[in-house]
Amino acid sequence: MKRILVLGLGLMLAGKIAVAQERSRSHPPTTDPTARLATTRETTKPTEKEEKEHEKQTGDELKITSHSVEVRGKKIDYTATAGTLVQRDEAGNAKADMFFVAYVKKGPATKPAPQPSTAASDDAAKKIEATTRPVTFVFNGGPGAASVWLHLGTAGPRRINLNEKGLPPGPPYELVDNESSWLDATDLVFIDPVGTGYSRPAKGEKGEQFYGVREDIESMAAFIRLWTTRYQRWTSPKFLAGESYGTTRAAGLSRYLLNRQGISLNGIMLISSVLDFQTLRPGEGNDLPYALYVPSYAAAAWYHKKLGPELQQRELPKLLEEVKGWSMGEYGVALLKGGGIPDDEKRAIAEKLATYTGLPVDWIMRSDLRIDPMRFMKQLLNDQRKMLGRFDARITGFTSDPIEAEPEYDPSLAPYLGAYTANFNDYVRRELKFESDLPYEVLSGRVQPWNYGPAGNGYLNVADDLRDAMLQNPNMKVMFCSGWLDLATPFAATDYTIDHMGLVKELRGNITTEYFPAGHMMYHEAGSLKKLHEDITRFVQSSITSESTPTKHAQE
Predict the structure, then answer these.
(1) What interhelical angle do 213-230 and 245-256 show, nearest 10?
(2) For residues 141 and 191, is the Cβ–Cβ distance under 8 A?
(3) Closest listed residue to residue 81, CA positions, set 108, 51, 61
(4) Cis omega (within 30 of 0) for bond into 29
(5) pTM given for the model
(6) N or C, which terminus of the chain has less Cβ within 10 Å?
(7) What is the largest CA-CA distance in the chain?
């Protein structure tokens, strides 16, 4: 069975990368600012006694700095904590150092950010009141991607500088204040799973115990519980935000956090989702993805002006509604017939596919009506010796071999890798004051092979985990965000997954869907960056202030 191996950010790199084993020790936090950067960002310096006591008690490596950012015209003062928490088993043995960056808003609405509790600071900790401000735990996917994409792309207070279409300039790259940061709605904790970013297994521990569906969920849940405890946030409204495979992780976490850790979530933000992998992997015996990709093909053809005049003049949302209805109806039925489809019907379907996708009828006939996404990326603009980006079909790149069936690289990933890597390595040292000699693994191959568990011989599906969490916690809300031009996790596949979760009408009302005229990382496009901020803000507020539909129904 043919498989699409790259499911999200991170799977592009499958090889193992050797890394240095020694790391530079950073310093524990204090609350007294001692220096101000030129950008008005403050940093702190602990005493030698505080440093030794903190390292002795926890083994953590933390840096705390103070900053400000303007979001939608309002200044936000906040504290940033960058560093590693040591994850231990109940016997006290170190299992992993997990890197994170947390942003906590200052001001009247939020109590001062508490320091991690240690035996030496119990008395002081008792005087600290826990904040009730929302906190969102954020991560990317891969498996193998660090959280830097959501961190510096959309949610954090600083973001990479892109043009209006969402493309980075050439090096050197720069960061700018993020006027669309989610920090006005929620505190943020960006987590790098073990094997990504600066997160590593502890000395003597094997990485395999973290590199799998179940293993990853357990490790991330342990971090969330530890951070929540150390920073006294048990009474805060809690959210998860994941992208790509991060949505797979978030769905699994939603049930595991509730059943194992006793942590009830207020909501989950799923960006460019993949919960049911059968919807993404076309091949022998699985025709479903062929139908689910067609609406995204139509969006790409419309964007590149490859459709006929009548369709080209249509508004994209209305066009996609029509295409989706046809692909899940007439086209889906035709695929079910397999080789038994009559020749005249097959030709009629091919002609309709050509109308919606901009591809030649004869090419579609030779493909047996089944358009592989990789081949579509290569074929649509092949007459120009160009290929489409997988993560964003708006972005194109030149091909060296026009007769090769599949793309040589992804032009919607390559330009960003250097920008994210350079910006984060500078930012974490210059502004967050965290030092490490380890390479920051933006896209890591060290987590491969990934253990898919029982699904290793079939299709992983965590939609039932999310469904069960919604059944057990009917107050939890879920928002799905999809890009129309995403050829990695097509929006119709997300819609299909939602429709097949088996939710009762009342719980279905807890789901919100949002769509964007961009790709997998829709926040790269300027208009979508602003819209995503508005959607997130509205979602967080409504998930805290409103009651669940079943509760309201019971009261009525």
Answers:
(1) 60
(2) no
(3) 61
(4) no
(5) 0.87
(6) C
(7) 83
